[in-house]
Amino acid sequence: MTTSSTCTICKQKPTVYKRQYSGERLCSKCFCLSIENKVRTTIAKHEMLRFDEKIAIGVSGGKDSMTLLHILNKLEKPFPKAKLVAITIDEGIEGYRNEAVRIAEKGCSKIEVAHVVVSFKESFGHSMDEVVQNLKAKDMDDKGLTPCAYCGVLRRRTLNSAARHVKATRLAVAHNLDDEIQTFLLNIFHGDLLRLARIEPASSSPLSSFVPRIKPLCSVLEREITLYAFLKKIDFQTTPCPYSHRALRNDIRAMLNRMEEKHPGLKYTTYRSGEKVRASVRDTMKTSEMRNCSICGEPSAADLCQTCKILRIFDSEKHSTQQA
Ligand code: SF4
Ligand code: ZN
């Protein structure tokens, strides 16, 4: 007999989660299976993977990336030719990143996935702490870009070159549905339609320097990822980055969470709106082809990549020698 505390799917086990936007009540097992099925469907829908990929996974040690590592490891098990390698970027943030690197290391060794750590310091000569100090010294810390804007550019670059270095055929990043709609709204707020057109669940380029990037968690809500990690006993870092509070993204996140609370399903409708807007922007606007940066040779939307523009601020001589 089904009661209000019994799982809607298996009709046997007790409910641990009520999915507000669909009305389903799910037991632990059915909930976890539903998340894995969502990821499987997303991978198939966007043709993210073949059976023999070498997948580099960006693993920061947070809940999203540790969950992605766990799910991809499970989904790729039936494909003996597929390989996983985890890449952790150490931005050099005192009191924050060391713990995350340890958690990522432990999580990878538990499931026997190779793990590579690459630091900003060794890649660019500057840790993130030094970048922030430098911005302060130049009196640029509360004007213009936030630390996350610099960090995001440097991390995307480091992940791509590390993935290329390990000869990965795909780079999987753990952006969830909340991240995707926050990015959509951020681009709307900034009026950056070209960037909006480029947010794809799977992106590729004819350039061999660009490792095709996939987002297998893009249709899963952040809170459901947290619950999945909790139910599967996946260890992850909970300490927030000391620089995160300044990002506009946090205000958008809080606003969307409040609205989802009052209007369940709103995040999904925003996500679908984003897909439609992206498709029409792509059809009507001339988007620029990717090319190799004239200084470092890495993939870029303009002659000079964002990383070289940033490094120019901090170190005009060193960056010119950073060929991949
Ligand atoms: Fe970098 Fe911002 Fe993330 Fe901190 S919160 S690791 S500064 S992107
Ligand atoms: Zn460059």
Describe this structure in words.
With 324 residues, the chain is an alpha/beta fold. It has a single domain (46-292), classed as HUPs (Rossmann fold, 3-Layer(aba) Sandwich). It has twelve helices and ten strands. A six-stranded mixed beta sheet has the order 5-4-3-6-8-7, sandwiched between helices. It has a two-stranded antiparallel sheet with strand order 1-2. A two-stranded antiparallel sheet has the order 9-10. Helix 1 crosses helix 9 (222-231), helix 7 (177-189) crosses helix 10 (248-262) and helix 7 (177-189) packs across helix 11. The protein starts with 16 loop residues before the first strand and ends in a 10-residue tail after the last helix. The relative contact order is 0.14. Residues 319-324 have low confidence and may be disordered. The protein binds iron/sulfur cluster and zinc ion. Residues 293, 295-296, 298, 305, 307-308 line the site of zinc ion. Zinc ion (ZN) is lined by residues 293, 295-296, 298, 305, 307-308.
